[in-house]
Design brief:
Order of helices and strands: HEHHEEHHEEEHHHEEEH
Distance between the termini: 50 Å
CATH architecture of the largest domain: 2-Layer Sandwich
Number of domains: 2
Radius of gyration: 20 Å
CATH topology of the largest domain: Beta-Lactamase
Strand content: 15-25%
Shape: globular
CATH class of the largest domain: Alpha Beta
Strand order of the largest sheet: 6-5-4-9-8-7
């Protein structure tokens, strides 16, 4: 098989995995329609994945197997700050009662490496490992505002500013103004930009070298995330928690 054919086959395999991930399971026909290859090609790839426990078959549908959970756990625990992030997020969730998450940037997209629902945390479609566009999230905007400007520009050039909700910022100049405000005050807001009905506040968290390690956010329903608590108390609390976290990391 020529090298170009091998690369194409690899790309098809990855596209199949993405389809199963996005849909939570799919038939051979469903996958073939999305990936735009023959059903025999899809079946061959799925059979290989099933043989190595990367997919499981239930009736006529294929779904990702627990082998991916093992790999995902390895990736998350390999991150040098994971253990400390877990403790940080849990403590804030207990203190605020809301949903709390920690987002990191990789390849220009955001990935949640840990999240926790507090006692009053409301529904949120965030899953550990799920990738999102940075501009759609308060944590993502906190990251964008603290990356080198040329890196932020490159991310926008590559990934664009797709809309997730009617509140998502999709105009580049408007986003740049928003990021400048975030730099000035030190924290970011999102008003239903990722999920309608939910507002969020986030702060950047820096690594020991002064770079951006990730974004720490608290999310809650609009009726709770208002007034002095949302505008002053919660941002100050998160800024303090981030500073303490950074100090602890510098002594490890």
């Amino acid at each position: 098989m020529a090298e170009s054919d091998t690369i194409k086959s690899d790309e098809t395999l990855l596209e199949i995995i993405e389809v199963l991930y996005d849909r939570g399971g799919a038939t051979v026909t469903d996958v073939a329609d999305v990936v735009d290859v023959s059903k025999s090609t899809v079946h061959r790839h799925l059979a290989t994945l099933q043989k190595h426990d990367y997919v499981a078959k239930e009736g006529h549908e294929y779904a990702l197997g627990f082998r991916f959970l093992d790999l995902g756990g390895h990736v998350r625990h390999r991150n040098p700050i994971h253990k400390q992030v877990k403790s940080l997020v849990r403590n804030i969730a207990e203190e605020t009662g809301e949903f709390v998450g920690f987002l990191v940037e990789e390849h220009g997209l955001g990935t949640y490496i840990y999240s926790e629902w507090g006692s009053e945390g409301v529904g949120n479609d965030v899953r550990i490992g799920r990738r999102i566009h940075l501009h759609q999230s308060a944590a993502g905007k906190a990251i964008l505002a603290n990356l080198p400007e040329e890196r932020t520009a490159a991310i926008i050039d590559e990934h664009g500013l797709p809309e997730r909700t009617p509140k998502t910022i999709t105009d580049r100049e408007e986003l740049e103004r928003n990021l400048e405000t975030i730099r000035e005050r030190g924290y970011a807001y999102a008003h239903g930009e990722h999920t309608e009905g939910l507002w969020a506040v986030a702060v950047p968290v820096h690594d020991v070298n002064g770079g951006i390690a990730g974004g720490l956010l608290v999310v809650g329903p609009t009726y709770r995330m208002r007034g002095e608590q949302f505008e002053d108390e919660l941002p100050e609390y998160l800024l303090g928690a981030a500073k303490e976290f950074e100090l602890n990391m510098s002594h490890l």
